What does this fold into?
Amino acid sequence: MAQSDLRAQPALPSEPTVQAQAQTRAELDALFAELGQPQGETWSRAESDILRLWSRSGSAAMDLLYKRGEAALDAGDTVTAIGHLTALTDHAPDFAAGWHLRAVALYMDGDLGPALADLQQALRIEPRHFPALTQLGAILDELGQRQAALRALRASLKIHPHQQDARDAVTRLEQELQGTDA
It folds into this structure.
């Protein structure tokens, strides 16, 4: 086998993951409609249901990697979390929640560039991934890219208008940018 054949090739979307995404698309669309309503009390349930659906890849093995990464992250073990989540993104490259969670772990580990890349990948897969948009806004703000941060946070709020932290960040950024050409 040639040396070039030994290099890791990007994995194709796994059949269980593709099936899981197809089965939940209509359910997600309905939940996003509910989540986006500025009034009402059902948005919290819609948010929980969306996050629950997103955490399921459709593959028991991939779900286990996700849960292990999440548990390591909760324990503050970012190195272990990144390891599990890298295996997950390698084997399920079409699973947006895996990219988002690895971005969170990378951010917590102080690795902002790769965290940004993972957030962008999560958003390519699922443009409505409001946690990824909010995290993107926070990182861009930390990097001093206030206009870009504001755009990301506004996009997140357009999808999920009930995020108080994102609303507060938008208000702060708008005040900071008021009167500037930035």
Q: What stands out?
A: The mean pLDDT is 89.
